[in-house]
Amino acid sequence: MKTVLVTGSAGFIGYFLCTRLLQDGFRVIGLDAMTDYYDVSLKERRHQMLLQNQHFKAVCARVEDPDVLMNLFRAETPDIVIHLAAQAGVRYSIEEPRSYLQSNICGTFELLEAARAHPPQHMLLASTSSAYGANTHMPYTETDKSDHQLSFYAATKKATENMAHSYAHLFDLPVTMFRFFTVYGPWGRPDMALFKFTKAILEGRPIDVYNYGDMKRDFTYVEDLVEGIRLLIDAVPVRPEDGIVPEGDSLSPVAPWRIVNIGNSEAVQLTEFISAIEDATGRKAEQNLMPMQAGDVPATWANADLLQALTGYRPKTSVREGVARFVEWYRDYYRV
């Protein structure tokens, strides 16, 4: 039985990923700080469900605290590491940038140092579509330049990509960075648009629609994302002996390191997304049209060809199907 360390295991994506790994017969060590960025009871409930499986072990600690990860690597010697723990949210990074520095930068540094001392077979680190920043050429491809991030959140995630590359090069640590695109689904974060929109619509309150609704997102259903991550575990990058990288591959010419998009490969208009929520709730949304928020981008759209080439898989859940599943969960969980 292989051991997987998942940081951020009580988070939205972390919960679904741990569930999938346990189903596939892995032993899972879940590390989470249970921070109060959003409703902690949601995180606690996710861990409670995971703890029903005897092969799941929960550890409550911050990734950025010195020695936490080093001691965990020493004690558990994980075969696979999947690093999801991070301070999330573009808008919050304008208000509280230090929390992003500590969790995203310092936390990733502690992880890389622990991996340097106790090398796993493969490390998979979460990045974000926000790393593409001011790029306007779409769909986004992993080999595109990404030098102009528009938020501090995005800047910290791009920094972790570079940090991981240096460790992969210096210490031959196999690393896959996966960039995900507007993940949604049951058990989602309350600060995300789907959760906020659904709550407001069901309560008869208006929703804030930024850029006057002229926004496009590559909405990716959470179980599709998790399927991509699961399959990438077995796609371990190997340093090219001759420095030659196959066309279309983001593999580094000097390290066992690559970036992979995990997205639905479809740019969906925000108005269509809202329409799907209206259909699922059976209620019409009152829209408060607003200008674009600082640090945000008008569109995201993933090219998922590399993911398919590496794993044979491409996300496929439609927005209307995924939104309906979320609304069903929301009504059941909150009894509305």
TrEMBL record:
Keywords, ordered alphabetically: NAD
Domain NAD-dependent epimerase/dehydratase stretches: 4-235
Keyword NAD annotated: yes
UniProt keyword annotation of NAD present: yes
Record InterPro entries: Epimerase_deHydtase, NAD(P)-bd_dom_sf
Region forming the signal peptide: none
Protein name according to UniProt: SDR family NAD(P)-dependent oxidoreductase
Lineage summary: Bacteria, Pseudomonadati, Pseudomonadota, Alphaproteobacteria, Hyphomicrobiales
